[in-house]
């Protein structure tokens, strides 16, 4: 098995056993990126290869002295282009930020570096991370790993494609409105939105009110996701609402017996959410696998009007997104360099009152309390990860959804992703697991939502699911073999995935 085919955990073990060198790992990934990345544009701002190899040599020298920095020792890592990286441009996908080079790492990059990773560049993201379709005027478009004519999703689209195409062993992302989960689903990998506060975000413009977005891990296996979370998680004083637990709990075995666990299947919320043909059956097949493990799956109702949740969500989103865009609009000339969707978010928030925000906060509180009541009856909740299959990359966003009930127009650029707001709005842990494919070979995911701060339990169920869903999770992109013929050396890695 080639080095780039190893799971991140197997790669870490092989590096620490000195069965393969950090230099060999770096060279294998650089060769793979050179051959594959031009077709998908997942990794941007790739750093100088000779310098990266020198850093790999330094990691090898540490191991020769009996020193290890941690689980990620010698692993190539590209950081999502929304997170600060010292000495490497952090553009946010915006032409206004094209030349911004942070002097310091953000907390996420700092923690992964402390665990030994070597930052090789960034992963592509939509402008300001807005919209679940990864394109921008700085680096262009990232294309779906399973069909380059389709969207990769977003905003962690570059990260998901890099994983699926074996350009990275593991990846970081962030999630405000499904930005870890949607691209994971559309590229057949795992993406975990942790509990709010599990992975602190720093630096941050606001640390008190802005509690919808979170960074988190992505991987090709649930074990890799858990181990990356162990590196990312933990309290930090700069994020006063972060959870006061370190990440060690995510390093232990995920094995457990799921027999008798109750899963509430929310489906399309009794017809409220339009779903493209085939999505619900694919997700129900995934639930059948869980039933085969002994889980009890029942249809569940949200228990309150979904549109009430959506309207409260819109108020929160407008307030938080507009505050991110506002500094750029202090110079009126910048408006022509900001994408229309971001301007729409900003304009919608003008005139928004504190009374309206507090009213939306009360609605959010009522929704959270209702979610808690559901968890008195169910151990987990489940939803599709997206309402549409990966769409044509030439489109900015789906303006309608054609479901069994007919064609439904989307009244905002993000309405087609309404299915992901429930875990976000309640601050609950949620993982997207590969659910299956449609007739065109395009992937879809299933969201598994856990109770408050039940990240480990979510990972346990996802791990159990992965064991019985190998035919889905290990299905590779159809173009991979042809590309690998030119990018993979014949040297086998010493240990299987």
Observed structural traits:
497 residues, Amidase signature (AS) enzymes, disordered C terminus, alpha+beta, globular, three-stranded mixed beta sheet, eight-stranded mixed beta sheet
Summarize the structure.
The chain is α+β, with helices and mostly antiparallel strands and 497 residues long. The chain has helices spanning 8-16, 22-40, 49-64, 107-114, 157-164, 181-186, 222-232, 279-292, 306-325, 340-349, 354-374, 421-426, 455-467, 470-473, 480-487, and strands at 43-44, 76-80, 118-123, 135-136, 140-141, 171-175, 190-193, 214-219, 262-265, 296-299, 380-384, 400-403, 406-409, 430-437, 443-449. The protein has a single domain (3-487), classed as Amidase signature (AS) domain (Amidase signature (AS) enzymes), CATH 3.90.1300.
Please explain how this structure is put together.
It is built from 15 helices and 15 strands. Strands 6-8-7-14-15-11-9-10 form an eight-stranded mixed sheet, sandwiched between helices. The protein has a three-stranded mixed sheet with strand order 1-3-2. Mean pLDDT is 95; it is low at 480-497. It has one domain (3-487): Amidase signature (AS) domain (Amidase signature (AS) enzymes). The N and C termini lie close together (8 Å). The chain is α+β, with helices and mostly antiparallel strands. Helix 2 (22-40) packs antiparallel against helix 3 (49-64), helix 2 crosses helix 15 (480-487) and helix 9 crosses helix 11. Helix content is 35%, strand content 14%. The relative contact order is 0.14. The protein has helices at residues 8-16, 22-40, 49-64, 107-114, 157-164, 181-186, 222-232, 279-292, 306-325, 340-349, 354-374, 421-426, 455-467, 470-473, 480-487, and strands spanning 43-44, 76-80, 118-123, 135-136, 140-141, 171-175, 190-193, 214-219, 262-265, 296-299, 380-384, 400-403, 406-409, 430-437, 443-449. A hairpin with a 2-residue loop joins strand 12 and strand 13.
């Amino acid at each position: 098995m080639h080095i780039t085919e190893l799971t991140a955990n197997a790669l870490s073990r092989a590096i620490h056993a000195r069965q393969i060198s950090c230099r060999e790992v770096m060279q294998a990934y650089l060769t793979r990126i050179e051959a594959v990345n031009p077709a998908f544009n997942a990794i941007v701002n790739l750093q100088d290869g000779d310098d990266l190899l020198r850093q790999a040599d330094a990691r090898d020298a540490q191991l020769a002295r009996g020193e290890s920095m941690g689980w990620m020792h010698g692993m190539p890592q590209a950081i999502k282009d929304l997170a600060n990286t010292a000495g490497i441009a952090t553009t946010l996908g915006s032409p206004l930020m094209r030349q911004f080079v942070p002097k310091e790492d953000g907390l996420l990059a700092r923690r992964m570096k402390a665990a030994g990773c070597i930052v090789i560049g960034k992963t592509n993201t939509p402008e300001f991370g807005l919209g679940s379709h990864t394109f921008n005027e700085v680096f262009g478009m990232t294309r779906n790993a399973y069909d380059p004519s389709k969207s990769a999703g977003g905003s962690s689209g570059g990260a998901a494609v890099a994983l699926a195409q074996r350009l990275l062993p593991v990846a970081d992302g962030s999630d405000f409105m499904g930005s870890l989960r949607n691209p994971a689903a559309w590229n057949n990998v795992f993406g975990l939105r942790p509990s709010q506060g599990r992975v602190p975000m720093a630096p941050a413009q606001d640390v008190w009110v802005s509690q919808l977005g979170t960074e988190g891990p992505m991987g090709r296996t649930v074990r890799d996701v858990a181990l990356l979370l162990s590196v990312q998680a933990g309290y930090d004083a700069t994020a006063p609402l972060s959870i006061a637990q370190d990440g060690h709990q995510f390093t232990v075995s995920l094995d457990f017996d799921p027999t008798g666990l109750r899963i509430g299947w929310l489906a399309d919320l009794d017809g409220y959410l339009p779903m493209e043909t085939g999505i619900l059956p694919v997700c129900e097949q995934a639930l059948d696998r869980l039933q085969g493990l002994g889980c009890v799956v029942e249809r569940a109702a949200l228990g309150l009007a979904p549109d009430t949740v959506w309207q409260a969500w819109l108020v929160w989103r407008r307030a938080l997104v507009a505050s991110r865009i506002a500094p750029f609009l202090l110079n009126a000339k910048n408006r022509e360099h900001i994408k229309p969707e971001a301007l729409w978010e900003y304009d919608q928030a003008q005139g928004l009152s504190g009374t309206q925000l507090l009213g939306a906060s009360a609605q959010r509180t009522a929704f959270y309390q209702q979610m808690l009541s559901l968890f008195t009856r169910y151990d987990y909740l489940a939803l599709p990860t997206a309402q549409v299959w990966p769409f044509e990359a030439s489109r900015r966003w789906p303006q309608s959804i054609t479901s069994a009930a007919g064609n439904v127009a989307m009244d905002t650029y993000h309405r087609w992703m309404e299915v992901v707001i429930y875990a976000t709005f309640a601050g609950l842990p949620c993982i997207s697991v590969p659910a299956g494919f449609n007739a065109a070979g395009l992937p879809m995911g299933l969201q598994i939502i856990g109770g408050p701060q039940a990240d480990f339990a979510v990972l346990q169920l996802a791990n159990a699911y992965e064991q019985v869903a190998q035919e889905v999770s290990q299905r590779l992109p159809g173009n991979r073999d042809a590309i690998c013929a030119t990018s993979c050396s014949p040297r086998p890695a010493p240990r299987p995935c």
